[in-house]
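Chain A, query sequence.
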Amino acid sequence: MILPIVAYGAPVLRKVAQDITADYPDLQKLIADMWETMYASNGVGLAAPQINRDIRLFVVDSAQIFENQEDDEKGQYADEPGIKKVFINAHITALEGKEWPYNEGCLSIPKIREDVMRPEKVTLTYLDEQLKPHTETFTGITARVIQHEYDHIEGKLFIDYLKPLRKKLLQGKLNDISKGKVRVDYKMTFSK
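Chain A, predicted structure.
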C-alpha cells in the first residue's frame, strides 16, 4: 500500500525516533509498504518518520542510482552497483573520510535540491528485515543515501547542513511546502 509522505513542517520529522522490538506490529507489511511508497515517489531511500512513524527504520535502494547513470558516469563511485537494504534500529558508529558535496533532495521537501557535504564512509550497526544484527561500512553514494535517511531517524533534515543565508533564501519555499502549496506526483500530508 502506498502511504502518504509527511511534508516539511510536521513535528515527526524533528523527533529522534525510537528503537523497535521484534514484536512491533505488522513490521513486514510496514517494510513492504515503505518500499512501495518509495518506488511510487521515485525515491532512493525512505525513513519511517517520513510516513509519520517515529521509529528507527529506513529503506535504501542506491542500486537505482547506478542503473540510471549515463555511460560516462559509470565507474565513478566505489560502491557501484549499490545496495537494496532495510535498516532497523540503526546507529552510526563511525563517519570517516573526506567530506564531499552532492546535490541532495528529499521526498518530504519537494522541489528543493541543494549541495550537502558528507563524509565518504559510514559504519553502522543495524538489524535487517529478519532482525539479524549487522555492523557494516558503506562508501560513496550508498554512504550518502544512508546518512541522509539516518538523519531522518535523528530528527535532522538535509537543509540543516545549509549555510544560514542559503536557508533564509529558501524559507519562502519551505513555508509553502509546510502549508501544502506545492504540487507533487505522489501522496503527501501537510501539517498546515
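The longest strand covers residues 84-106. Helices lie at 27-40, 63-67, 140-153, 164-178.
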